[in-house]
Amino acid sequence: MNVTVKNKKLSQWIKEVADLCKPDDIYVCNGSKEEYDQMVKTLIDSNIAIPLKKRPNSYLFRSDPSDVARVEDRTYISTQSQDEAGPTNNWIDPTELKELMKGFYKGCMTGRTMYVIPFSMGPIGSPIAKIGVEISDSPYVVINMHIMTRVSDRVLELLGTDGDFIPCLHSVGAPLEKGQEDSIWPCAPIENKYISHFPEENLIWSYGSGYGGNALLGKKCLALRIASAMARRESWMAEHMLILRLTNPEGKQYHIAAAFPSACGKTNLAMMQPSLPGWKCECVGDDIAWMKIGPDGRLYAINPENGFFGVAPGTSYDTNPMAMDSLKDNVLFTNCALTDDGDVWWEGMDGDEPAHAIDWKGNDWTPESSHDAAHPNARFTALASKCPVICEDWEKPEGVPIDIFVFGGRRGTVVPLVYESLNWEHGVFLGATAASETTAANIGAVGNLRRDPFAMKPFCGYNMGDYFQHWLNMGEKLGDKRPRIFYVNWFRRSEDGKFLWPGFSENSRVLKWMCDRVDGKAGAEETPIGLIPKDGELDTSGLDISSEDMKELLHVDTKAWKAEIPDIENHFSVFGDRLPEKLRNQLKEFEKRLG
Ligand code: GTP
Ligand code: SPV
Ligand code: MN
Fold first, then answer.
1. CB of 330 within 8 A of CB of 320?
2. C-alpha span between 337 and 321 (Å, rounded)
3. What is the predicted pLDDT for the residue at 127?
4. Which residues of 117-153 are buried (b: 16+ CB within 10 A; e: fewer)?
5. What is the C-alpha separation between 115 and 138, in angstroms, rounded?
6. To test ligand 1's pocket by mutation, which of 219, 242, 260, 268 has the most ligand atoms within 8 angstroms of CB?
7. Is 139 near ligand 1, meaning CB less than 6 Å away?
8. What are phi and psi of 407, to 5 degrees?
9. CA dihedral 422, 423, 429, 434 (to 10 degrees)
10. Counting ligands in written order, which one lies closest to the CA of residue 213?
11. What is the CB neighbour count within 10 angstroms for residue 95?
12. For the chain, how are helix, strand and coil distributed in percent, rounded to 5?
């Protein structure tokens, strides 16, 4: 081991894990640039990282074709009673799960180095920040954590001898025999993967995957699943939400937090550049919000992350120029295609398709190929500080005051472009019943409609019925300082399958309507589902869209909504008596309004 660890709990844990996993070596990370560069060099020398000629200090990685996304089916919330994990989470008894996983962990780091990664979610030392330590046998994980979290020896200093942290154990689950050649992307077969959370003891055990949220444990595992359980105990909120600051032409600021399911537009909206003249948008965070009630009674949000782990396909100067500008140097790319001149490429990037490329699996690709060059869940890992529109207050420990919550999802039909909730309880009902078509961010079928309440189905670390109640409770605590709640759908399609709404920078028009609603300046029409922009109230000046399409986008099809009721009833029924009475009543009221 390269340093002496002074923290008692940490040195004890390192010893326990080393005794179990039997690594060849132990290295404690300090988060320095030298450390990053050294790890990258090792990865290049073993042909795992591919340097990109066109982007300084940027590298391409190719994962195993079986290990390309989160694995919700293999993700567990392990609490003493199954009821605590609730009906939306996979559950195994903690003692049983630990025994089972210890079997896998035994000797699993043989032939590898065990990295100890001290990190902070939130600015180091800030009162809202949480300290984690990830132990991982993946150097790819180490460099990604360097970008996505604050990895530093200062974290160890802060821990002192007795400070507490959240232990996050990770192994790719691929021990190396003596003389055995390593693969480019070691991992375990799907049935041996376990992404386990023990929220009652603030503990994470992950085994068998090296990809994204399965392996970068500060993100979904700590900052959402463990943090959501902490947040309920301590009366704050940990949400799968982007945070943005919008400034109107008069200079008034609005802060918006929006929850859309994975690969449904958070990164894009967080960095959106308004098409409306005079409006300005700045990014505070693109995936996770931690929110606490401040001294003035308002709700304040921080982004606990340090970088973006963003969906590459579809990202272009046309759709998300600020993301593109964040990707010029010091970026890690995973499962993108490689062009002949040494750059990355993905479907939807600006300009012509390359005549030839190497696809994400490492094979030749041409536009005639029958498959995509980049995997649909190909990702970039980039520092938040590289984003040209990162908000100057993004690291402010007290956070930014939230005015507006937005829920949404990917719905080809039924759900209109935008509507406002009738009140907080109705807003919670909208969050609790949110539905979206599944995406490539999880291993499994794509395009299936499912209920994904608050975009938290895969990320809530306790019983989702109690989580609904927590939202209602927070509303009561906030009183008249509650943010307003809206629902959006950028993904409504016409009969011929095209998106009806241009999206991206044009989404500013929808956000403007929300801000005007907050200021009491914009009219709305009450419908059974909520408040829809009154005719002409959504600013479409300069937008090339037919009035028929606009009508369709804001149309409330009562018959189609009635057809949703059985599915909502079904969705609610699984929570039994953990479903708050207020939501049961909301459903009744909704049915009544539909007539
Ligand atoms: P995670 O990182 O998985 O949580 O995803 P995310 O919610 O940040 O989604 P992201 O912004 O990366 O968008 C996912 C995909 O949706 C990309 O391919 C985008 O191009 C596409 N997308 C985002 N916003 C819009 C929009 O307004 N309209 C349309 N048509 N597509 C969009
Ligand atoms: C998501 O799936 O919501 C992501 C990507 O943000 S991952 O980090 O893999 O969870
Ligand atoms: Mn996400």
1. no
2. 20
3. 86
4. bbbbbbbbebebbbbbbbbbbbbbbbbbbbbbbbbbe
5. 8
6. 268
7. no
8. -110, 160
9. 60
10. 2
11. 10
12. 30, 25, 45
pLDDT of the residue at 225: 99
| pLDDT level of residue 125 (50, 70, 90 thresholds) | confident
pLDDT digits (tens, 9 = 90+) for 276-295: 999 999 999 999 999 999 99
Cβ distance 134 to 142 under 8 Å? Answer: no
Residue 71 CA, chain-centre distance (Å), reads 14
Say which residues have a Cβ less than 8 Å from residue 100's Cβ, sequence separation at least 6.
Answer: 92, 194
Answer yes or no: is pLDDT of 193 > 90.
yes
Asked if residue 128 has pLDDT above 90, the reply is no
Please enumerate in sequence order all residues whose Cβ is within 8 A of that of 413, keeping only pairs 6 or more positions apart, or say none.
492, 493, 560
380 CB near ligand 1 (under 6 Å)? no
* Exposed e or buried b per residue across 31-46, where buried means at least 16 C-beta atoms within 10 angstroms of its C-beta: beeebbeebbeebeee
pLDDT at 499 over 90: yes
pLDDT at 20: 98
**What is the widest separation between alpha-carbon atoms in the chain?**
72
For the chain, give the percent of residues with pLDDT over 70.
100
Pairing of strands 299-302, 242-247: unpaired
Average pLDDT over residues 324-331: 98
pLDDT digits (tens, 9 = 90+) for 561-594: 999 999 999 999 999 999 999 999 999 999 999 9
Strand (E) or helix (H) holding 553: helix 547-553
- Helix-helix angle 464-478:424-432, to 10 degrees: 160
| pLDDT, tens only, 44-56 | 999 999 999 999 9
Kindly write down the DSSP assignment for every residue of 91-116, as one continuous string. Answer: ---HHHHHHHHHHHHTTTTTTSEEEE
- The per-residue b/e assignment along 252-273, b for 16 or more CB within 10 angstroms, e otherwise, is ebbbbbbbbbbbbbbbbbbbbe
311 Cβ closer than 6 Å to some ligand 1 atom:
yes
Q: What would the two tokens of residue 359 be? A: 């696809």
| Cα(31)–Cα(144) distance, integer angstroms | 11
Size of the chain, expressed as the number of residues it contains: 595
Q: Is the dihedral of CA 254, 324, 68, 110 positive or negative?
A: negative
Active site members: 264
